[in-house]
Each structure stands twice: as structure tokens, then as C-alpha cells.
Please model this.
Amino acid sequence: MVRLITHNLLACHAKDCNTNNFPLEFKDVQLEIREADFNPDFLKGFMPKIEWKALVDTARQLGDTSLPLEQPEMLDDEFLKNLHHVLLEIHVEEGSMTCPNCKHVYPISNGIPNMLLAEHEIG
Amino acid sequence: MPSRYLFHYAQVHNEFRLPELQSIAELYGIPYTLPQNPEDRDSTRPFMIVELDEEEHARMLARRCILIKAVYEYYGHGSTYDELHEVNRKNESLWARYVQDTSFRFLVTSSKHKIPQSRQREVIENFAYMGFLGKIDMKSPEIILTCFEEYEERHGTTRVKHEGDGEFRQVFFGRLIEEGSARQLVGKFDVKKRSYYGNTSMEAEISLLMANQTLASPGKLIYDPFMGTGSMAYPTGYFGALVFGSDIDGRQMRGKQKTPGVIRAATQYGIASRIVDLATFDVTHNPWRCGELFDSIVTDPPYGVRAGAKRLGRKRELSERQKELCLQHSLAPRPDDQPYIPPTKPYELSHLATDLVLLARYLLKPGGRLVFFLPTVTDEYEEVDIHTMMCEGMELVANSLQDFGSWGRRLVTIRKVTKERYPPPTFDPMLREANEETHIPAHKDFREKYFQGFKSKADETKG
Ligand SMILES: C[S@@+](CC[C@H](N)C(=O)[O-])C[C@H]1O[C@@H](n2cnc3c(N)ncnc32)[C@H](O)[C@@H]1O
Ligand SMILES: [Zn+2]
Model:
């Protein structure tokens, strides 16, 4: 935890931070790889929700280059296995996520990100 | 052609029985027909005759419905043995195949009563016309035939042993198909045996019933926005779903050790990999990038009794100490949610309930379900209370009361029936008050009412 599936769904939500607020940038990360159940139907169903470029860029930044730059049309087994690994098996245990726009830092500790806003950041 | 099956139910959480059956039948795509006569589907009674297309469907239901004790192939019933035998003879085609050489065991039992041995034998002898030739096997018979007498519950009266024997309401007869194996999960998920729990943890049986209302199964994504110690995440994860949790107070999910408490408990159940992530945030200021993400949302919202409902913002001017903490937090945020505790303000329950339905409409996929508890004041509750929190595109599926006397809580199941996309809710009380309907639900200001001991309006003016 924080897995990349989650990272792909979280945007900075500070007050008035509405553009360029995604993807959050990982810093000083400690990674762990942990196995998860492979479910091709889940992956296929989830693909339309993915911001593909953000996922590929983030995976590469964390050292996984298995995903193609463009979302492929043909979803073969090898691709799905790679996607499964990237989305569900890479865990960011420590570090932080920074908003590219307002620079808010969301710290991660023991795998749990603190997404709380400070008082001046809520609308 | 559909056949009849006899469902033996645990006589607990009666109002959850039919919603659970509906949910699991929907999950597996099992068509079923309930008895026509309301008396015969009365959820306070131990037996119900249900029509199903296949025996396998009965087994599937027995393996997943928490409230099912066992399912039987139905052979007959009646308010007297004569009536039962008449039906049973007519149904000979159902049991004729066991006559020749099937080993069997015959049981005579009852609910809320003990039948004397001598009469049990007598009952069995009266089935002699079935002419079973196979051997009687008490240990591992090929089939078990059971005859149940249903006695009325007699609250508060102590009966002398065997008193009223034979004065049953109805008697049922059938062949055991499957014992309800899901009931064992109530023990498996026992909170006291869990490696991490807190004073907000939800009892196992109710958490399981909630998980069934979500239609949890492999490949589904489920979210609890008031995660706390994660009670509902364990059964939903156990049924195969992937679960997200968030809470305004990270300490509820973490506990005191390095590995978060929720993960420790999930590990105990072998489902740690299904807790997709945990995150600390106020659900009214949430970071979800888009909607239509989840198959279900399952949650026990804070209603101010054990865990106060709160949201970011301030009730009144901050103390110097809090200001200092705020400043420190924005300069150098601490990763572990401590010591910084952001200022919060109370969150009134009827607002929270309305917001939750709007949030669910945004975050659920079309067809997805919102399953949550709404506490309410028993004397003041009216059915319209539920409708004060509904919005366009959301439809009530079930509403089951767990009764605690002067108050209770209702497990509400709502389905997103629209395919339309809606914006996220604004969570703005100002905007809402302008549109608020005139009906004031009984759950409004629940916390205050709870601590005042649910005095009615009339009492107040008298006093
Ligand atoms: C009744 S408890 C849920 C208990 C949980 N089902 C369990 O098993 O422990 C409600 C939770 O909501 C959290 N909470 C209160 N206000 C919140 C908010 N605005 N956003 C997110 N979480 C909140 C509390 O910290 C508390 O843990
Ligand atoms: Zn930002």
C-alpha cells in the first residue's frame, strides 16, 4: 500500500487546486512487492478508469517498464499480467506524494497516505 | 419445473432475512418464488417454503446466506400430522427413488420446545407407509429425513418440561440437502478473536449480513469511507472483493503497532491482499479523482455516540495550541497523522446521511449498492424518514431494523439505478438548508437525542 491503482485515483483536493493536480508525484519512496489475486475480468473492467499516461509514467519512475506507452487494443495474457503487477503488486510503504500544482505534500507512513488538508486548504 | 424447498432459518435479525435472500439470489442470478400468503413468509417464523429451479441453487444459498441454518427438499407440511401425511403421500414421486436401498436417518425435532423420546418414536413409526428398505444409519446415512414441529415462542413464561407437547403451529417434513455453512462465519469473524478491534467494531453477524447486502464477490471493488477498525472489510474481502478504506482519523485504522491494525486483522483472515489501500481523509474533502469507481459502498457512519461525526473545519476560533499545530503541519507535515489533529466541527446525522447518498451516486458504478446503518429513534421513526435522504437516480432496496428498544438502527440498502453521471456532492450545509424538505426525520440530531435518553417532545413540554 499505496498501490498504483490507488495512486491513479487520487488527485490533490486542496481548495482551488483544480488543474494540473494529478498525478501526485512520489518522493523518497520505499517499495515492497506483494502478490495479489490475478483477476483478468477485474482488470479489463477497470481499464477505462485508468489515466494511462499517469500509470505508465509512475510505474517507470518506480522502475517498472513493462507497460506500453499506449493502451493496447488486444489484451493478451502477458499484458494483463504486467498490468496486474503494476496496479496491484507494487506497494509504496513510505515516502510522500506531492501535488504538481500547489505543492501540497501528502506523506505516507506504514503504507497509509495522509490525505487530510490543513485548515487553510479547505473551501 | 420449479420445486419446493424448505428453508430453516436462524430466528435472529428477522428483518434481514428476506433482504439477504434477495441479495444472494441476485448475486448468483437465482430465480425464486416466495410463498403467496404473508403468514407463510413471516420472518419471525423458523421455516419458509421457497420455490427454486434447481437443487444446486438451494445449496448455493445455504453456502452464502448467514441466516440459513439448513435447506431441505420439501415433502410436506400441515397444521396436523394427518395433513402432513396427506401431502407427503402425494409427493411420493419426490422420495420414491430413496425407497429401495438408500441408508437413512430420521430426525424429529422442534423449535422452542423439546419433544419427549417416546413421542419422537411414535412420529417416526407413523411414517412407516413410506416403506424405506435401506438400512438405518445414525452416523453417516446417505440421506437425512427431518420432521420439524414449530412451536410459538412464549416470552417470559417458563414451561414445565414437555408442557404443551404436540400443540405445534405447523409441522414440516423434508430431506436435508445442505446445512447452512455460512453461519459458521459468525464464529470465524468473532470480534473478540480478532487481532485488531476497537470500541467501534461491528459485531460479526451484522458485518456479514452487511457484506451480503453489498453482493461482494471476486472482481468487485468496495469502499468503506468510515473505515474505523475495518469490521465490514473482512467479510467483504473474504467473499472475494477488493476493499478500500478511509477514515478521518488514521489512528482508528492503524492502531499502535507498525503494521496497521486493519492489515493485521486482514492477515489473520488470509485476505490482506484484498485490502487495496487505506487512506486518511475527511470524506467531505476527499481526493477521489473521478466517480463511478465502486461496485458497492458499505459503511457504519459515525453518529456521535461512540465515534463522533466530525468534519474538517472549525466550530469556533482555534486555541493558540491548535494554531501552532496547524502552522507546523503546513510547514512540515508529519507522515503518521500525529501529533497534528486538524480542527473539526460536528457533522449532524441527517446531513451526513443525505451527503452519503449523494456521494454514493457519484462514486458508484451504475447498478452499484450503498449499504449503511442509520440509527434512529424508535418512537419517532416514520417510513418517510428514509425518503428525506434519497435523491434522483437512487432507489431503496431494503431497510431492516435492528431493534435496541428506545432506539434502533436500520440497515439501509440503496441501488444506483441511473446510468447518468452526476457531479460530486458539494457537502455544503448552506446550499442544502435552502432546499431542505419540511419533513424532519427522527434521525436528525440523533446524538443529542441519545444523550437525553430519547425524551419525546411531549415529555419535554410537560417537564
Ligand atoms: C462508527 S465508526 C465506524 C466503525 C467501523 N465500522 C469499525 O469497524 O470500527 C465511524 C468512523 O468514522 C470516522 N469519521 C468521523 N467523521 C468522519 C469524516 N468526516 N470523514 C471520514 N471519517 C470520519 C471516525 O473516525 C470513526 O472511525
Ligand atoms: Zn494541489
Notes: Chain B touches chain A through 46 residues (CB under 8 Å). The two ends of chain B are 65 Å apart (CA to CA).
